[in-house]
Task: structure prediction
Amino acid sequence: MHRSRFLSGAVTVAATSLLASACTTGPTAGPSSSGAMSGGTVRIGVTSDVTSFDPAKGAGSTDYVMTSLLYQPLIGQDDGGVFVAGLAENWTSTPTKTTLTLKKGLTCSDGSSLTASQVVASLRRYRATSAGALLTFGAANAGEKTTITGDDAAGTVSITTATPWGEVLSGLAGTGAGIICKAGLAAGTAALAQGAVKGAASGPYEMATARRGASYVLRLRKGFEAYPRFASLPAGKPADTLRIQIARNESTLANQLRTGALDLAPITGTDVTRFTGDAGYVIRSAPFIRNHIVFNQRPGHPGADPKIRHAVAQAVSATAFNKVFGGAGRPMTSYVDDTSACVSTDTSLLTATDPAAAKKTLAGVSIKLEGSNAVAGGAGNSYVAEALRTAGAEVKLTNADNATWATDVTANQGDWDVTVFPLISGLLARGGAYFLGPEPADGGKNYGAVKNTAFARYYVEATSTTDRNAKCAAWQKAQEALLKADDVIPLATVDVHYVARKGVSFAMPAGSLTASTLRVTG
Amino acid sequence: MATTPTGMTAAGAGRTTALGPWGGFLLRRLVGLAAVAITLVVGTFLMVQLIPGDPARVVAGADATPADVERARHELGLDQPLSAQFGTYASGLLRGDLGTSFQTKEPVAEIIGSRLPFTAEIAFLSVLAVLLLAVPIGLAVAARGSRRTDGAFTFVTGLVGATPEYIIGTLLVLGFAIRLGWLPAAGAETVTSMVLPIAALVLPGTCVMARIVRSEAAHVLAQDYMRTARGRRLPPLRLYARHALPNLLTATLTLGGLILAGLLGGTVVVEAVFAWPGIGQRVVEALLVRDHTVIQGCVLVLGLLAALLNLLVDVVLALLDPRTLAGKGGH
Result:
């Protein structure tokens, strides 16, 4: 339905030049439209706008959804950490060299061929511009210490690292390493960030229309075949059109799902109960945030004392923490959840909850607890504060917004003793990088100043091998070292519940929704 | 109430005389507008500096190393002294450049240009609807003069007027979108998408305005000239439209202007409930990620719009009642 926006002219005083671009010419999406089932269109609701369309600069969940549809990684990562084909059909990997062979006939969204040289250029850009690349190639292999070369004739791409690093494939499977085609690389960072580059996409979809803050329409590229080959790919066919609509409020998303204006939406809060038991909807849940307690272990802070850390671990309960969020998450046994590869599920490594014992140590101890209020207004932080108060500690709670919390805690510019860390990543290597190495002031990420030499040794061992058994064995020892020292106290996940109308299906490899697996089945 | 100049000096009075009442009036208002603009430019710049949190860290991302954060700080110009940052901002404004979003790299003017029309659309239509509904309702209740009607009116308008917009919005969605399926629950895709957000703004606004109109109308209807008019047995429409209504306009227009100015920057909650892509939502998003340039640009433009609306109301009031040309105490 086309319409001009009444009264647009009234505000030309303030914004004359771009008024026309605000005019709506989108299709009807009323309560009666049948969406996915009728026209091959799937309408996805999201709670935030895209901050950057540049895969290397993705910062939020909507960024990852969008860039995973536009820019296909070379490989995918399936359940149990198994790698599957993406743009690359096969690969070999040793701790110092990874070689990937591209599928034949790969193309970009402008129809041009996607060659090994272009893939190399895209990966070199990723290495230079993405903060996440440090974990893909290893901190010791920054910059030119990682060599990326390609052979157009053979269709191969080789990555060589100066020091052994066994996480290259895992990094390449991430959305940040999605391949940008020649047109995108030529257009530059600013244009890529704004998503306006034609011919840049290597993934299954390309941008058709964009209305910042409101909606995006992506069209399926004809002839695209390089979908990641996950073991549990749903039946059906990819939607011809994806319409991504923004509504910051989860209740609004639920209303839109209920009235048929959306086909799929992520819900983290209690609105999911509106769909529980309804045969017209399918709900699938996945960990979204992995909460755990971390201490400031610098001298003068209570967390420097192992006894205090142990008492804090005794004072809190992962099960009670989970109940704060309606019990919909899952208590954790490490700093990542149990869907992660090589995660420790050994509960004997955890300190048992014992508030009475905690009281003997914590009585009268002053603790400054600072957490992010991004999830449920910081309800989890409030629980931890109350648990510590019950154990006799004098707690000063600061529920800060994400930006303030990140500055105060992860940059260590604030005065804090304890934090509830909301880890987004489900990877042991990524989450573990916060517990070793230099502190932020010295260019590192170890914001709590953790000095756990056993963890550091096994971390290096785990990330230096590509042998799966050896990797998991080393990870087990690393987690054991961390948990036994109470350097980290696992709490519970906050899950995201993907609610889909019947007729829309998707895969959740390695515990997270991969947008390129969306299929219309009805 | 409409803004009025205070403390006119003798020199000011002299200028008023030389320029005529309208010249002096407009000069005073324009000088006031310029002062507001300068205050807004300085105020918005200083305001964002007070917000805790590091924008460079947010831009650099969760995986960023301190070196990445410092690189982002340099790219954003945040490593410059505050005076240099203000100089860059102010000189950009003089060229009509509001800057570029820290986060999305979009020009701020583009962001405002794409979001403000959505907010303005529902704000203007809401105020129009409030005026069209509240004036006749308030006037009718005052004219009726029945204690029973008055009591019912006071109860209903008090209840609805005090109900937060998000509750009204949620009830409207439950009724008209989910139960009846007549209207979209959210979004901005069709003309019908506007109905519920506007209704959520109009209902409490109408109640508040109708109470003021009723009160003003009761005062006007008790005046001698109205008794005389009634004594001449004028038709009701002529009586109220020609004799009562003009005397209600001062309060009504002043309040309408204030409501509109408030709605332009303050429809955040309604925008959230209805996923309406307006500027209020964008300001909140910018605040959460410390996007200083977007916050500054949006607040500046919204502030200027509010000042312009006040000026417009003052001009209209002066046209209706030339006594206000002289300003405060000039009757």
